[in-house]
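Co-fold these.
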Amino acid sequence: MRTLIKHLLAATQPLDTVTVQAWIRTRRDAKGFSFLELNDGSCFGSLQCVVDAGAPGYEGIAAFTTGASATVEGRLVASPAQGQKWELRATRIELVGPADSTYPLQKKGHTLEFLRTIAHLRPRSNLFGAVFRTRSRLAFAVHEFFQSRDFFYIHTPIITASDCEGAGEMFRVTTLKGKPGEKPEADFFGKPTYLTVSGQLEVETFACALSNVYTFGPTFRAENSNTARHAAEFWMIEPEMAFCDLNGDMDLAEEFIKAMARHTLEHCAEDLAFFARFVDKTLNERLKFVVERPFVRVPYAEAIEILKKSGRQFEFPVNYGQNLQSEHERFLTEEHFKSPTTVFNYPREIKPFYMRLNDDQKTVTAMDVLVPGIGEVIGGAQREERPAQLAENMKAHQLNEKDYWWYADLRRYGTVPHAGFGLGFERLLMFLTGVANIRDVIPFARTPGSAEF
RNA sequence: UCCAGAGUAGCUCAAUGGUAGAGCACGCGGCUGUUAACCGUGUGGUUGUAGGUUCGAGUCCUACCUCUGGAGCCA
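Predicted complex below.
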């Protein structure tokens, strides 16, 4: 029976007969025996195997090359040499699948750009193994966080007919062949449909029934964005809470990020050590800071004053009523506060229709959580729960009320104050691993002009 | 989409307008409880594509393609 390398490396005593099945990272030949370094992805580390020339299978040792897969049986013994606690004394080796000299993953380091061109093989590298183990663990942590706080997981639709949610350009979903004269009514759903850009509006309906809910699913934006932090397909987490205001929303957002950082420190230590050493030297310090210190909270108007008084020459001028530019966000979170920073109460003109209007009649209950190195990682708000005000907001945003009849109904029947936010899972991963490009924290990145694999 | 930069061996990179090279990978030989092993040696090229200037272009010019960084949009 196969034993994962993860369990062998964590052994507390020698083991008599074990079977390992893995991919060969490298082979080093010595006089009369060979070292095989095996990795099965179950953990960061590899297992060193010592294969004597007399062991069954050794006659074919030349084919045990980097990238090949193999089965090795043997005894787990304490290693006499430096570098590893345990090693496997092989009693039998068997090649499962060969890898010839064209195998592109060398023992040496590769650039991230090159590895993106072999996205089907890069999970076998140290970095990407670590990234995707961490990704899996954090996905689990997301559910654990919400489930332990009595949130229900809601599967909002991937296909939506709402073409004006305001979150971004949408991908069309159609079964039409694109022939001239085809009418939308002839399409599969009888009307134009799209891939979702957010599950928020739908999940609000469940918050107004089950109280605390969240989504965690794929999200699509057809924006022609070419940056290190945008992808056309990404995973978004959207909690929504009934009987909750902006303060409760900000509390949850900060608690959530802290919990994810804590979880990474506690459960991904080995992979994290690799990130801290080779990807981002400041990672450990940053994660501990995030866990231990409260986030800064600053109203938008105050943030504008800070930027104006900074004496800094920004490329884009700082003006009340305009969105914060990347350089402004970076200044606030990286230089001024040197801390994750939540900016709230934005001018109503620059935010969507569903955000609640404050008593000053000028700002809405929006909040963005900015983190050093990434920028915006969370965007959220308390929702407008007053029917008349919502109608007015929609008019101001030139939206057709009829398209949102069910959304407005939530305010018509038993309306409640409620709030939530959206968080890009990949951006969270970037923040927690130090990996600087979103294409490197998602298995197969979809970006403009690129849907290979 | 805009601005900037880069495309040369499988990978990472050199190469005054004048004979395309190195390290690594890979092959072969040697050595060794090795561990990004080591020593020797060999194979490896339509210099992103298409034009142009020139006696001569990897190098200069034009267009296009791809990638990277920054910006916008956002999560």
